[in-house]
Write a structure and sequence with these properties.
- The protein is built from 13 helices and 17 strands.
- It has 370 residues and is of the alpha/beta class.
- The chain has a seven-stranded mixed β-sheet with strand order 5-4-13-14-15-12-16, with helices on both faces. The chain has a five-stranded parallel β-sheet with strand order 7-2-1-11-17, with helices on one face. It has a three-stranded antiparallel β-sheet with strand order 8-9-10, with no helix packed on it.
- Strand 14 and strand 15 form a beta hairpin.
- The chain binds flavin-adenine dinucleotide.
- Flavin-adenine dinucleotide binds next to helix 1, helix 10 and helix 11.
- The site of flavin-adenine dinucleotide (FAD) has 31 residues, from helix 1, helix 10 and helix 11.
Protein backbone atom coordinates (compact mmCIF):
# COMPACT_ATOMS: atom_id res chain seq x y z
CA UNK A 1 0.00 0.00 0.00
CA UNK A 2 1.42 3.36 -0.96
CA UNK A 3 -1.58 5.48 0.12
CA UNK A 4 -0.25 8.47 2.00
CA UNK A 5 -1.86 8.77 5.45
CA UNK A 6 -3.12 12.25 6.37
CA UNK A 7 -3.31 12.71 10.14
CA UNK A 8 -5.04 15.74 11.68
CA UNK A 9 -3.60 16.62 15.10
CA UNK A 10 -0.11 16.26 16.62
CA UNK A 11 -1.21 15.17 20.09
CA UNK A 12 0.12 11.94 21.56
CA UNK A 13 -2.32 9.82 19.51
CA UNK A 14 -1.49 11.36 16.13
CA UNK A 15 2.26 11.32 16.78
CA UNK A 16 2.34 7.65 17.85
CA UNK A 17 0.40 6.78 14.68
CA UNK A 18 2.87 8.73 12.52
CA UNK A 19 5.80 7.06 14.26
CA UNK A 20 4.45 3.48 13.89
CA UNK A 21 3.70 4.15 10.21
CA UNK A 22 7.27 5.45 9.81
CA UNK A 23 8.65 2.28 11.46
CA UNK A 24 6.75 0.29 8.82
CA UNK A 25 7.82 2.53 5.94
CA UNK A 26 4.35 3.99 5.31
CA UNK A 27 4.37 7.71 4.44
CA UNK A 28 2.29 10.09 6.58
CA UNK A 29 1.86 13.81 7.17
CA UNK A 30 0.47 15.35 10.37
CA UNK A 31 -1.38 18.68 10.14
CA UNK A 32 -1.41 20.55 13.46
CA UNK A 33 -3.29 23.74 14.36
CA UNK A 34 -0.65 25.03 16.78
CA UNK A 35 2.00 27.28 15.25
CA UNK A 36 5.02 25.39 16.61
CA UNK A 37 6.01 22.61 19.02
CA UNK A 38 6.41 25.21 21.79
CA UNK A 39 3.26 27.23 21.07
CA UNK A 40 1.54 26.02 24.24
CA UNK A 41 2.83 24.62 27.51
CA UNK A 42 1.99 20.92 27.42
CA UNK A 43 1.90 20.89 31.24
CA UNK A 44 1.15 17.96 33.42
CA UNK A 45 2.52 14.58 34.26
CA UNK A 46 1.14 11.37 32.79
CA UNK A 47 1.42 7.87 34.17
CA UNK A 48 2.05 5.57 31.23
CA UNK A 49 0.49 2.18 31.83
CA UNK A 50 2.07 -1.17 31.04
CA UNK A 51 -1.23 -2.41 29.54
CA UNK A 52 -1.81 0.40 27.00
CA UNK A 53 0.56 3.41 26.80
CA UNK A 54 3.70 1.31 27.11
CA UNK A 55 2.34 -1.25 24.62
CA UNK A 56 2.06 1.63 22.15
CA UNK A 57 5.60 2.86 22.82
CA UNK A 58 6.96 -0.66 22.32
CA UNK A 59 5.16 -0.82 18.96
CA UNK A 60 6.76 2.55 18.16
CA UNK A 61 10.20 1.13 19.07
CA UNK A 62 10.74 3.92 21.59
CA UNK A 63 10.89 2.11 24.94
CA UNK A 64 14.54 2.96 25.53
CA UNK A 65 13.96 6.67 24.92
CA UNK A 66 10.81 6.53 27.07
CA UNK A 67 12.68 5.00 30.03
CA UNK A 68 15.03 7.99 30.04
CA UNK A 69 12.07 10.31 30.65
CA UNK A 70 10.71 8.47 33.69
CA UNK A 71 10.65 10.55 36.88
CA UNK A 72 11.88 8.30 39.67
CA UNK A 73 9.73 7.93 42.77
CA UNK A 74 6.61 9.46 41.26
CA UNK A 75 4.51 6.30 41.53
CA UNK A 76 4.19 6.92 45.28
CA UNK A 77 0.56 7.49 46.25
CA UNK A 78 -1.17 9.06 49.24
CA UNK A 79 -4.86 9.35 50.04
CA UNK A 80 -5.67 12.02 52.63
CA UNK A 81 -8.89 12.90 54.44
CA UNK A 82 -10.06 16.53 54.18
CA UNK A 83 -8.57 17.11 57.67
CA UNK A 84 -5.15 16.09 56.33
CA UNK A 85 -4.92 12.71 58.07
CA UNK A 86 -3.38 9.91 56.02
CA UNK A 87 -5.89 7.23 54.96
CA UNK A 88 -3.55 5.28 52.69
CA UNK A 89 0.08 5.53 51.67
CA UNK A 90 2.09 3.53 49.16
CA UNK A 91 5.76 4.09 48.43
CA UNK A 92 7.30 3.83 44.96
CA UNK A 93 9.53 0.76 45.11
CA UNK A 94 10.41 1.00 41.43
CA UNK A 95 8.39 -2.04 40.38
CA UNK A 96 5.06 -0.37 39.51
CA UNK A 97 3.52 -0.56 36.06
CA UNK A 98 2.65 3.13 35.76
CA UNK A 99 5.80 5.23 35.55
CA UNK A 100 5.29 8.98 35.32
CA UNK A 101 6.69 11.29 32.67
CA UNK A 102 6.15 14.92 31.72
CA UNK A 103 3.65 15.13 28.85
CA UNK A 104 5.71 17.78 27.05
CA UNK A 105 8.85 15.63 27.16
CA UNK A 106 6.95 12.61 25.84
CA UNK A 107 5.54 14.67 22.97
CA UNK A 108 9.00 16.03 22.21
CA UNK A 109 10.42 12.48 22.16
CA UNK A 110 7.77 11.45 19.61
CA UNK A 111 8.38 14.54 17.47
CA UNK A 112 12.10 13.79 17.46
CA UNK A 113 11.44 10.25 16.21
CA UNK A 114 9.78 11.43 12.99
CA UNK A 115 11.45 12.43 9.73
CA UNK A 116 11.85 16.20 9.38
CA UNK A 117 8.79 17.85 7.85
CA UNK A 118 6.33 15.13 8.93
CA UNK A 119 4.42 17.64 11.09
CA UNK A 120 3.04 20.73 9.34
CA UNK A 121 2.54 23.32 12.08
CA UNK A 122 0.02 26.17 11.84
CA UNK A 123 -2.49 24.07 9.84
CA UNK A 124 -5.84 24.38 11.57
CA UNK A 125 -8.50 22.26 9.90
CA UNK A 126 -11.87 23.97 9.59
CA UNK A 127 -13.77 21.11 7.93
CA UNK A 128 -13.68 18.06 5.70
CA UNK A 129 -16.03 16.52 3.12
CA UNK A 130 -16.27 13.18 1.36
CA UNK A 131 -15.42 13.13 -2.36
CA UNK A 132 -16.36 9.47 -2.86
CA UNK A 133 -14.25 6.32 -3.23
CA UNK A 134 -12.67 6.90 0.19
CA UNK A 135 -11.15 10.28 -0.71
CA UNK A 136 -11.75 13.41 1.39
CA UNK A 137 -11.18 17.11 0.90
CA UNK A 138 -9.73 18.79 3.99
CA UNK A 139 -10.12 22.58 4.33
CA UNK A 140 -7.80 24.67 6.50
CA UNK A 141 -8.60 27.91 8.33
CA UNK A 142 -6.62 29.92 5.74
CA UNK A 143 -8.88 28.59 2.97
CA UNK A 144 -6.34 26.16 1.47
CA UNK A 145 -7.39 22.55 0.82
CA UNK A 146 -5.90 19.11 0.26
CA UNK A 147 -7.29 15.78 -0.88
CA UNK A 148 -6.58 12.86 1.45
CA UNK A 149 -6.47 9.24 0.28
CA UNK A 150 -6.68 8.05 3.87
CA UNK A 151 -7.73 10.52 6.58
CA UNK A 152 -7.29 10.07 10.35
CA UNK A 153 -8.85 12.48 12.86
CA UNK A 154 -6.47 12.70 15.85
CA UNK A 155 -7.65 16.23 16.60
CA UNK A 156 -9.00 15.74 20.09
CA UNK A 157 -12.26 16.59 21.84
CA UNK A 158 -13.56 19.11 19.29
CA UNK A 159 -12.52 17.13 16.21
CA UNK A 160 -13.28 18.64 12.81
CA UNK A 161 -12.96 15.20 11.23
CA UNK A 162 -15.53 13.47 13.48
CA UNK A 163 -18.61 14.91 11.66
CA UNK A 164 -17.65 12.74 8.64
CA UNK A 165 -18.49 9.71 10.80
CA UNK A 166 -20.78 10.71 13.62
CA UNK A 167 -23.17 13.42 14.76
CA UNK A 168 -22.09 13.01 18.41
CA UNK A 169 -20.78 16.09 20.22
CA UNK A 170 -19.13 16.18 23.66
CA UNK A 171 -21.40 17.15 26.54
CA UNK A 172 -20.47 18.81 29.83
CA UNK A 173 -20.21 16.12 32.55
CA UNK A 174 -21.39 18.33 35.43
CA UNK A 175 -17.94 18.82 36.89
CA UNK A 176 -14.99 21.16 36.30
CA UNK A 177 -11.42 21.22 37.49
CA UNK A 178 -9.27 24.17 38.42
CA UNK A 179 -5.55 23.78 37.78
CA UNK A 180 -2.83 25.35 39.93
CA UNK A 181 0.98 25.15 40.09
CA UNK A 182 3.25 25.69 43.10
CA UNK A 183 6.93 26.13 42.24
CA UNK A 184 9.95 25.39 44.51
CA UNK A 185 7.43 23.78 46.83
CA UNK A 186 9.90 22.11 49.21
CA UNK A 187 11.20 25.50 50.30
CA UNK A 188 8.31 27.86 49.50
CA UNK A 189 5.32 25.63 50.31
CA UNK A 190 6.73 22.93 52.63
CA UNK A 191 3.41 21.89 54.25
CA UNK A 192 1.73 21.36 50.87
CA UNK A 193 4.86 19.57 49.58
CA UNK A 194 4.81 17.22 52.54
CA UNK A 195 1.09 16.53 52.09
CA UNK A 196 1.60 15.60 48.43
CA UNK A 197 4.72 13.52 49.18
CA UNK A 198 7.01 12.15 46.48
CA UNK A 199 4.37 11.23 43.89
CA UNK A 200 0.59 11.75 43.78
CA UNK A 201 -1.93 12.67 46.44
CA UNK A 202 -5.70 12.68 46.37
CA UNK A 203 -7.92 14.16 49.06
CA UNK A 204 -11.45 13.09 48.13
CA UNK A 205 -14.82 13.93 49.64
CA UNK A 206 -18.24 12.83 48.36
CA UNK A 207 -18.58 15.56 45.73
CA UNK A 208 -15.20 17.30 45.35
CA UNK A 209 -11.52 16.54 45.60
CA UNK A 210 -8.01 17.92 45.47
CA UNK A 211 -5.60 15.85 43.40
CA UNK A 212 -1.95 16.85 43.13
CA UNK A 213 1.33 15.44 41.98
CA UNK A 214 4.97 16.29 42.19
CA UNK A 215 6.32 17.10 38.75
CA UNK A 216 9.99 17.36 37.71
CA UNK A 217 11.97 19.01 40.53
CA UNK A 218 9.67 20.16 43.31
CA UNK A 219 6.85 21.67 41.31
CA UNK A 220 3.42 20.72 42.63
CA UNK A 221 0.60 20.57 40.08
CA UNK A 222 -2.93 20.38 41.46
CA UNK A 223 -6.30 19.61 39.90
CA UNK A 224 -9.14 20.83 42.10
CA UNK A 225 -12.37 19.05 41.16
CA UNK A 226 -15.71 20.74 41.79
CA UNK A 227 -19.26 19.75 40.88
CA UNK A 228 -21.81 22.09 39.34
CA UNK A 229 -23.36 23.37 36.14
CA UNK A 230 -21.27 25.51 33.79
CA UNK A 231 -23.21 28.63 34.89
CA UNK A 232 -21.85 28.25 38.40
CA UNK A 233 -18.28 28.56 37.15
CA UNK A 234 -19.15 31.22 34.59
CA UNK A 235 -20.08 33.41 37.56
CA UNK A 236 -16.47 33.32 38.80
CA UNK A 237 -14.19 35.86 37.14
CA UNK A 238 -11.08 33.83 36.36
CA UNK A 239 -9.60 37.01 34.86
CA UNK A 240 -9.28 38.25 38.44
CA UNK A 241 -6.80 35.73 39.77
CA UNK A 242 -6.98 36.69 43.46
CA UNK A 243 -10.79 36.74 43.57
CA UNK A 244 -11.06 33.43 41.68
CA UNK A 245 -8.52 31.80 44.00
CA UNK A 246 -10.42 32.98 47.09
CA UNK A 247 -13.72 31.79 45.60
CA UNK A 248 -12.36 28.30 44.80
CA UNK A 249 -10.62 28.02 48.19
CA UNK A 250 -13.92 28.90 49.91
CA UNK A 251 -15.34 25.67 48.46
CA UNK A 252 -12.90 23.83 50.75
CA UNK A 253 -13.75 25.68 53.94
CA UNK A 254 -12.69 23.57 56.95
CA UNK A 255 -10.16 21.48 54.98
CA UNK A 256 -6.61 21.20 56.29
CA UNK A 257 -4.47 24.29 55.47
CA UNK A 258 -1.77 22.14 53.81
CA UNK A 259 -4.46 21.00 51.33
CA UNK A 260 -6.05 24.39 50.69
CA UNK A 261 -2.52 25.78 50.24
CA UNK A 262 -2.56 23.88 46.92
CA UNK A 263 -5.15 26.48 45.84
CA UNK A 264 -4.15 29.62 47.73
CA UNK A 265 -0.39 29.14 47.22
CA UNK A 266 -0.57 28.86 43.44
CA UNK A 267 2.20 30.66 41.57
CA UNK A 268 0.07 30.71 38.42
CA UNK A 269 -3.41 32.08 37.83
CA UNK A 270 -5.99 29.34 38.45
CA UNK A 271 -7.19 27.84 35.18
CA UNK A 272 -10.74 26.53 34.84
CA UNK A 273 -11.22 23.36 32.77
CA UNK A 274 -14.84 22.32 32.28
CA UNK A 275 -14.97 18.56 31.64
CA UNK A 276 -16.74 17.15 28.59
CA UNK A 277 -17.31 13.64 27.31
CA UNK A 278 -18.70 11.84 24.29
CA UNK A 279 -21.43 9.28 25.02
CA UNK A 280 -20.14 6.04 26.50
CA UNK A 281 -19.92 3.41 23.75
CA UNK A 282 -19.68 6.07 20.98
CA UNK A 283 -19.24 4.29 17.63
CA UNK A 284 -20.04 4.73 13.95
CA UNK A 285 -20.63 2.73 10.79
CA UNK A 286 -17.56 2.08 8.69
CA UNK A 287 -17.05 4.85 6.11
CA UNK A 288 -14.37 4.37 3.45
CA UNK A 289 -11.08 6.22 3.84
CA UNK A 290 -11.54 7.86 7.25
CA UNK A 291 -11.32 7.00 10.95
CA UNK A 292 -10.68 8.60 14.36
CA UNK A 293 -8.26 7.94 17.22
CA UNK A 294 -7.98 9.17 20.81
CA UNK A 295 -10.27 11.83 22.24
CA UNK A 296 -11.76 12.49 18.80
CA UNK A 297 -13.20 8.96 18.98
CA UNK A 298 -13.91 8.44 22.68
CA UNK A 299 -13.47 11.54 24.87
CA UNK A 300 -14.21 10.47 28.47
CA UNK A 301 -14.15 12.27 31.83
CA UNK A 302 -10.49 12.27 33.00
CA UNK A 303 -9.75 8.86 34.51
CA UNK A 304 -6.03 8.53 33.87
CA UNK A 305 -6.55 6.53 30.67
CA UNK A 306 -7.18 9.09 27.90
CA UNK A 307 -3.62 9.78 26.75
CA UNK A 308 -2.70 6.11 27.18
CA UNK A 309 -5.65 5.05 25.03
CA UNK A 310 -4.90 7.68 22.39
CA UNK A 311 -1.37 6.29 22.07
CA UNK A 312 -2.62 2.70 21.91
CA UNK A 313 -5.16 3.69 19.22
CA UNK A 314 -2.36 5.26 17.18
CA UNK A 315 -0.14 2.19 17.54
CA UNK A 316 -2.93 -0.29 16.76
CA UNK A 317 -4.10 1.64 13.71
CA UNK A 318 -0.52 1.91 12.44
CA UNK A 319 0.00 -1.80 12.95
CA UNK A 320 -3.28 -2.65 11.20
CA UNK A 321 -2.36 -0.47 8.18
CA UNK A 322 1.03 -2.21 8.00
CA UNK A 323 -0.61 -5.65 8.18
CA UNK A 324 -3.14 -4.83 5.41
CA UNK A 325 -1.01 -2.77 3.05
CA UNK A 326 -3.19 -3.49 0.02
CA UNK A 327 -6.52 -3.21 1.84
CA UNK A 328 -6.92 -0.07 3.94
CA UNK A 329 -10.59 -0.80 4.57
CA UNK A 330 -9.74 -4.14 6.21
CA UNK A 331 -7.19 -2.29 8.37
CA UNK A 332 -9.68 0.38 9.45
CA UNK A 333 -12.38 -2.22 10.19
CA UNK A 334 -10.13 -4.36 12.36
CA UNK A 335 -8.74 -1.31 14.19
CA UNK A 336 -12.22 0.10 14.88
CA UNK A 337 -13.65 -3.20 16.08
CA UNK A 338 -11.03 -3.50 18.84
CA UNK A 339 -11.00 0.24 19.62
CA UNK A 340 -14.80 0.44 20.09
CA UNK A 341 -14.67 -2.42 22.58
CA UNK A 342 -11.65 -1.11 24.49
CA UNK A 343 -12.85 2.50 24.72
CA UNK A 344 -16.36 1.51 25.88
CA UNK A 345 -14.78 -0.51 28.71
CA UNK A 346 -12.47 2.35 29.69
CA UNK A 347 -15.06 5.13 29.41
CA UNK A 348 -16.81 4.31 32.65
CA UNK A 349 -13.73 3.49 34.70
CA UNK A 350 -13.01 5.42 37.89
CA UNK A 351 -13.48 9.09 37.17
CA UNK A 352 -12.84 10.26 40.69
CA UNK A 353 -16.38 9.83 41.94
CA UNK A 354 -15.83 6.67 43.97
CA UNK A 355 -16.12 6.65 47.73
CA UNK A 356 -12.83 6.79 49.60
CA UNK A 357 -12.85 3.09 50.50
CA UNK A 358 -13.14 2.18 46.78
CA UNK A 359 -10.13 4.36 46.01
CA UNK A 360 -8.10 2.75 48.76
CA UNK A 361 -9.16 -0.73 47.64
CA UNK A 362 -8.16 0.15 44.07
CA UNK A 363 -4.66 1.21 45.10
CA UNK A 364 -4.22 -1.64 47.58
CA UNK A 365 -5.36 -4.08 44.87
CA UNK A 366 -2.86 -2.63 42.43
CA UNK A 367 -0.13 -3.33 44.98
CA UNK A 368 -1.30 -6.91 45.56
CA UNK A 369 -1.63 -7.71 41.87
CA UNK A 370 2.03 -6.98 41.14
C1 LIG B 1 -7.59 17.86 33.39
C2 LIG B 1 -7.19 16.65 32.59
C3 LIG B 1 -6.28 15.72 33.11
C4 LIG B 1 -5.93 14.58 32.39
N1 LIG B 1 -5.04 13.69 32.92
C5 LIG B 1 -4.73 12.56 32.24
C6 LIG B 1 -3.81 11.60 32.79
O1 LIG B 1 -3.29 11.76 33.91
N2 LIG B 1 -3.54 10.47 32.07
C7 LIG B 1 -4.11 10.24 30.84
O2 LIG B 1 -3.82 9.19 30.22
N3 LIG B 1 -4.96 11.14 30.28
C8 LIG B 1 -5.28 12.28 30.95
N4 LIG B 1 -6.15 13.19 30.40
C9 LIG B 1 -6.74 12.90 29.08
C10 LIG B 1 -5.74 13.21 27.97
O3 LIG B 1 -5.27 14.53 28.11
C11 LIG B 1 -6.38 13.03 26.58
O4 LIG B 1 -7.18 11.87 26.56
C12 LIG B 1 -5.31 12.93 25.51
O5 LIG B 1 -4.55 14.12 25.44
C13 LIG B 1 -5.92 12.63 24.15
O6 LIG B 1 -4.90 12.62 23.18
P1 LIG B 1 -5.25 12.93 21.66
O7 LIG B 1 -3.96 12.78 20.92
O8 LIG B 1 -6.42 12.11 21.24
O9 LIG B 1 -5.77 14.44 21.65
P2 LIG B 1 -5.08 15.80 22.12
O10 LIG B 1 -4.03 15.56 23.13
O11 LIG B 1 -6.19 16.71 22.45
O12 LIG B 1 -4.34 16.30 20.80
C14 LIG B 1 -5.09 16.79 19.72
C15 LIG B 1 -4.17 17.65 18.84
O13 LIG B 1 -4.92 18.08 17.71
C16 LIG B 1 -4.74 19.48 17.54
N5 LIG B 1 -5.97 20.01 16.91
C17 LIG B 1 -7.16 20.21 17.51
N6 LIG B 1 -8.04 20.71 16.63
C18 LIG B 1 -7.37 20.82 15.45
C19 LIG B 1 -7.75 21.27 14.15
N7 LIG B 1 -9.00 21.73 13.91
N8 LIG B 1 -6.83 21.25 13.16
C20 LIG B 1 -5.57 20.77 13.39
N9 LIG B 1 -5.16 20.35 14.61
C21 LIG B 1 -6.05 20.36 15.62
C22 LIG B 1 -4.51 20.02 18.94
O14 LIG B 1 -3.82 21.27 18.90
C23 LIG B 1 -3.67 18.90 19.56
O15 LIG B 1 -2.29 19.08 19.32
C24 LIG B 1 -6.51 14.35 31.10
C25 LIG B 1 -7.42 15.28 30.57
C26 LIG B 1 -7.76 16.41 31.31
C27 LIG B 1 -8.75 17.39 30.72
Amino acid sequence: MTTHVTIIGAGLGGLVLARVLHVHGIPATVYEAEASPDARSQGGMLDIHDYNGQVALREAELMEEFRELILEGRQAMRILAPDGSVLFEQADDGTGGRPEVQRGELRQMLLGSLPAGTVRWGHKVSGARALGEGRHEVTFADGSTLVAGLLVGADGAWSRVRPLLSTAVPEYVGKSVVETYLYDADTRHPAAAEAVGGGSMIAPSPDREIFAHRERGDTLHAYVGLPGPRDRFAAIDFGDSAAATARVAAEFDGWAPELTALITGSDTAPVLRPLYALPSGHRWDRAPGVTLIGDAAHLAPPNGEGANLAMLDGAELGRALAAHRDDAEAALASYEQAMFRRSAEAHDMDSGDHPVHDLIAAFAGREESR
